[in-house]
Amino acid sequence: MRAEPSASSRAIWLLLAAFYFCVVLSNRSNAAETEFTDWTPRELALIQSLSLSQLRPPPPSPSNRYADNPSAASLGRAIFNDARFSANGKVSCATCHRQDYGFTDDLPRGLGIGVANRRTMPIVAMAYQKWFFWDGRADSLWSQTLGPLENPVEHGIDRHQVQQLVSLHYAEPYRQVFKGDPTSQPVNQVFANTGKALAAHVRTLMPQTTRFDYYADTLPGQTNGTDILTKSEKPGLRLFVGQAKCVNCHNGPMLTNGEFHHSGTPANGEPDPGRGAAFDALEATEFWFFGKWSDADPDVNSDHIRFLDRDTHKYAGTFKTPSLRSVADRPPYMHNGTFTSLAQVLNNYRTVSGSPLADEIFHGGLSDRDLIDLEAFLGTLSSNSNQIHN
Ligand code: HEC
Ligand code: HEC
């Protein structure tokens, strides 16, 4: 899933070009369409800021010096797909993070050795994130990857077993990357290095160009005739960047600010404290940004969390804003998988708007038609939506 041109992506671009010409021709005779090509300069700037083409090269990962090492990534990729790293020999990272399902799964809660307490998150463009998990209890990708291995309901093994498995099956690639022997290094060092290899692989998982990106990139300003979005998708986009204020949180090319918010998602079982309970977990481990196995220089890279806002009261019940890339393809939704459709997500936003548990949500004024248009727009953020559906 690297973002390299391939035969299939060339085919998609050809398809898009053909599609583009069809729409241009049909729009010439469609006067009603012109109203949605009149984007204001502010709308235009916002729309273009959401395009995948605006994604900068991934920032470095100072706590993982192997983050961009291709040999580390190929070792990480093998372990990512290796079900021997589990208590029953059947669970790998790829069991829950399925490539064919936007790197998540179709379940309300992830299913490994047992049932996880939250929904599996999609894991594309992770290099751009600062905090990991729904509650942000990990501050680096490599330390995040160690969590599922030792989680009794996910992989259900421990770091000693990780060391044995690496020694048995990956000793040679490990030696090449980390210049040490996995059998003789301290167990926590082998564990941390395994996380760094996994992170190097996960960093390579990138989203694909969608119909929305194509639209944003070909928008030439106020001119008519480049609309490749439908009559419902365009007003949906206008709501998204305007009146509905979705871009307050779902912004940038990944459509997430990576931060934590109250979104008024109803509990589905035990109430979940979210970010409010994450700070202690972060520092309770030696596998974090300032911990023993980090490659970061605390004097140089300290901005990372030194200015962390630790107001646990404010953060109680908040969750990380998820990316909306390919969102229509991967129900169910929210940290607890409580909604089975986008219509339910949007309807809940409207219902909870302004309530104490959703104090940053202002969607009360949206009509039924608006919700339909917003949902139509969300569909354009999937690469398999690259055909017309008026
Ligand atoms: C049993 C299913 C399951 C397995 C197996 C699993 N994950 Fe996850 N993954 C989840 C769930 C559930 C979450 C969210 C957990 C939470 O917030 O507490 C998650 C979150 C993540 C995240 C955070 C994404 C973000 O935006 O913050 C990453 C990265 C990730 N997993 C990578 C991995 C890797 C690497 C492995 C293998 C070592 C793995 N996962 C194994 C279910 C799973
Ligand atoms: C105040 C910040 C904020 C605003 C404004 C906001 N969202 Fe969200 N959005 C979130 C958070 C946080 C979640 C995850 C909530 C959870 O897991 O309980 C979320 C989840 C979602 C999801 C589910 C994604 C998934 O993978 O589960 C969709 C779809 C969505 N938002 C669309 C929208 C749309 C459309 C708008 C505008 C009408 C909007 N959001 C406005 C923060 C926001």
From TrEMBL:
**Residue ranges constituting the Cytochrome c domain according to the UniProt record:** 231-382
Keywords of the record: Heme, Iron, Metal-binding, Oxidoreductase, Periplasm, Peroxidase, Signal
The record's Pfam families line, in alphabetical order, gives: CCP_MauG (PF03150)
PROSITE patterns attached here? Answer: CYTC (PS51007)
Q: What GO molecular function annotations does the UniProt record carry, in alphabetical order?
A: peroxidase activity
Q: Can you tell which superkingdom this protein's organism belongs to?
A: Bacteria
Compartments where located: Periplasm
Extract the InterPro entries matched here: Cyt_c-like_dom, Cyt_c-like_dom_sf, Cytochrome_c_Peroxidase/MauG, Di-haem_cyt_c_peroxidsae, MauG/Cytc_peroxidase
Is Disulfide bond tagged as a keyword? no
Please classify the protein's predominant subcellular localization into one broad category: periplasm
* Keyword Amino-acid biosynthesis included in the entry's annotation: no
The protein, known as = Cytochrome c peroxidase
What is the organism lineage in this UniProt record?
A: Bacteria, Pseudomonadati, Pseudomonadota, Alphaproteobacteria, Rhodobacterales
